Amino acid sequence: MLIGLNINEHNEVVLPSYNCDALLKAILYVRAELIIVDINYEDGNIYFDNALRVISDRTKTIITPHTFGFAADLNDFLNLNIPIIEDCAIAIGGSYKSSKLGSFREVSVFSF
Question: What is the CATH number of domain 12-109?
């Protein structure tokens, strides 16, 4: 997924603090810089305000896992000019605003 987006050691990837280790391994594989942001304690998903604080010119993607069957609040993320990677592994069959999870941006993964 990261190779397909041409992400390498010169780039940053934003990831929430609670996630699957497969996502971490993918970032380490391409040698990108990992930027970890805190989660929203109400649903365990990435917290937009924290992600927004760390975005730089080197940020090439934000990974947004949908945690414990709760869809991440994608509204603000979808307005960014940065590729969003949805991780739908623990929200299979879920939806967000009447659309299936995994159908919102450039890449969707199931990090089993």
Answer: 3.40.640.10
Alpha-carbon span 60 to 7, nearest angstrom: 7
Tell the residue number behind the tokens 């967000």, with chain if given: 96
Residue 72 and residue 46 in contact, taking contact as beta carbons nearer than 8 Å = yes
105: pLDDT strictly greater than 80: no
Joined together, the tokens standing for residue 70 give: 């709760």
Residues 6 or more apart from 56 whose CB is under 8 A from it? 12
N- to C-terminal Cα distance for the chain?
14
Domain ranges for the chain, please list them: 12-109
The structure's pTM equals 0.91
Non-local (6+) Cβ contacts of 58 within 8 A are 10, 11, 12, 33
- Note the pLDDT of residue 30: 98
